[in-house]
């Protein structure tokens, strides 16, 4: 026993000298874990998009329910790809740095968040594999995945709020934080307001035995769009001023607009959903969508003012930012057209699907890839292959437009493009859409090739490879980013 106490005391003294706790996972490792999770979810979602065009053989040799496959596709791309990358990945990596904190205020809570997300994507993967042969287990897998994701997001949102509000270094006021941090704050606030309602909905229907995965996906569709859009705006707000070579314009206005939109959407949607127990209908979705469009429009105006007075450098992250602007603007215009009274587009299923993808999902992919190429040097200390990165962008951009612009053109007819083998006069549009899907999937494999080149042929980068335009606190630190406890000016967690 004395020797055990002596060893324990030595371990504590060693930890005090090195500043490291035993079995401690810092914010960099957590961010890398969420980024890896998002890459896996994105690849699965890209492969599943091919199966939406027909029944693949790996679904037990039988055709799965198209609505169930679409639900799997949406859950993978939103909850287990876009959000882990934009919130869990970039948020864990750079939020403590921007706040001047030593680490996440609640690191064990963040570890539990990552573990719950991993369990959720594993459950969803088993449900996809069994969707053709065992629909009952697929439904149960969606329930398990949604519960795990909800717990993961709530834990992560609590950690982000604690880091921003309680873990900032002395002298770092809230209004000094960049738009990226404000958008992370808005996303966490929106999650705290809406995700508990989703959990209550799930447990209520599970206890009643009336759970339907498709209905559950539609129930949370509006908050999903907001949760993806807000952090994507934050990532792009970090990229655009860097390559414009000047300080951002309308940054505080954009930050406050994002926070107000999160609070408004969260409060309105949560109240309507708790009152009726169903997805809100009538004016609530229209008002919530209008608030999101207003926040996005203010941010886009700020980017335009920043680029107008600066000199845009055509680097890969800025290409993804331009793709984000085009896809987001298309989605915003389409949404406004759908909200117009008496518009025939508002009742077209294919138009609604294309509007969702163009306005949110594809824009989120642009934000995730743009943030990856913007920060990969800071995260790994290695430079990316320029030619492959540009090839991935053009494959994705052209593929996404070919996939969903035909659906916008077919919107007034109400004829969906996805089902294969149906005789109609839209064969050319379906062919374009199929070819666009292939290009988008090819871009995912080009991204895998980029990762392989990063690992096999490393190329060292400077602490600030972007020049004078990069003024964030992370660019004043070495590459790769050191442990926060070793950074000058950092305070202990």
Automatic annotation (TrEMBL):
Residue ranges crossing the lipid bilayer per the database entry: 30-52, 72-97, 109-130, 142-167, 179-204, 224-243, 255-272, 284-306, 318-339, 359-376, 388-412, 432-456
Regions of compositional bias (Basic residues) in chain numbering: 11-22
PANTHER family linked to this entry: CYTOCHROME C OXIDASE SUBUNIT 1
Region (Disordered): 1-22
Signal sequence region: none
Keyword check for Nucleotidyltransferase: no
Keywords noted in UniProt: Electron transport, Membrane, Respiratory chain, Transmembrane, Transmembrane helix, Transport
UniProt-recorded name of the protein: Cbb3-type cytochrome c oxidase subunit I
Domain of life: Bacteria
Cytochrome oxidase subunit I profile domain residues: 14-493
Pfam families in the record: COX1
SUPFAM superfamilies attached to this UniProt entry: Cytochrome c oxidase subunit I-like
């Amino acid at each position: 026993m004395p020797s055990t106490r002596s060893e324990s005391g030595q371990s504590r003294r060693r930890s005090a000298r090195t500043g490291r706790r035993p079995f401690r996972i810092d914010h960099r490792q957590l961010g890398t874990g969420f980024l890896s999770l998002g890459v896996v979810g994105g690849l699965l979602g890209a492969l599943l998009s091919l199966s939406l065009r027909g029944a693949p053989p790996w679904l037990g040799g039988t055709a799965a329910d198209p609505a169930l496959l679409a639900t799997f596709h949406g859950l993978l791309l939103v909850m287990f790809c876009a959000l882990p990358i934009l919130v869990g990945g970039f948020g864990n990596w750079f939020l403590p740095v921007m706040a001047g904190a030593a680490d996440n205020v609640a690191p064990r809570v963040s570890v539990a968040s990552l573990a719950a997300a991993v369990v959720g994507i594993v459950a969803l993967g088993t449900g996809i594999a069994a969707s053709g042969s065992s629909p009952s287990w697929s439904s149960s897998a969606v329930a398990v995945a949604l519960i795990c994701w909800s717990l993961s997001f709530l834990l992560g949102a609590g950690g982000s709020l604690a880091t921003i509000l309680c873990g900032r270094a002395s002298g770092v006021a809230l209004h000094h934080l960049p738009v990226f941090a404000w958008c992370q704050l808005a996303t966490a606030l929106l999650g705290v307001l809406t995700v508990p309602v989703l959990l209550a909905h799930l447990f209520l229907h599970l206890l009643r035995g009336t759970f339907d995965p498709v209905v559950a996906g539609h129930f949370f569709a509006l908050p999903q769009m907001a949760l993806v859009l807000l952090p994507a705006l934050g990532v792009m707000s970090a990229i655009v001023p860097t390559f414009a070579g000047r300080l951002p314009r309308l940054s505080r206005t954009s930050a406050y607009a994002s926070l107000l939109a999160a609070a408004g959407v969260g409060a309105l949607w949560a109240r309507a959903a708790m009152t009726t127990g169903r997805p809100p209908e009538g004016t609530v979705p229209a008002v919530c969508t209008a608030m999101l469009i207003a926040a996005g429009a203010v941010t886009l105006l700020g980017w335009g003012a920043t680029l107008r007075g600066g000199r845009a450098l055509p680097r890969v992250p800025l290409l993804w930012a331009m793709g984000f602007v085009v896809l987001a603007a298309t989605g915003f215009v389409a949404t406004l057209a759908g909200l117009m009274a008496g518009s025939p587009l508002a009742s077209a299923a294919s138009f609604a699907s294309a509007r969702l993808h163009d306005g949110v999902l594809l824009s989120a992919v642009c934000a995730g890839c743009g943030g990856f190429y913007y920060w990969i040097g800071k995260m790994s200390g290695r430079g990316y292959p320029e030619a492959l990165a540009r090839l991935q962008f053009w494959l994705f951009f052209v593929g996404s437009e070919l996939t969903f612009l035909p659906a916008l053109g077919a919107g007034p007819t109400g004829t969906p493009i996805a089902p294969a083998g149906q005789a109609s006069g839209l064969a050319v549009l379906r062919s374009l859409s199929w070819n666009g899907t292939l290009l988008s999937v090819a871009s995912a494999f080009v991204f895998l090739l980029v990762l392989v080149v990063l690992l096999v042929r490393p190329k060292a980068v400077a602490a600030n490879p972007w020049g004078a335009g990069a003024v964030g606190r992370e660019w004043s630190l070495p590459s790769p980013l050191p442990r926060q406890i070793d950074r000058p000016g950092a305070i202990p967690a």
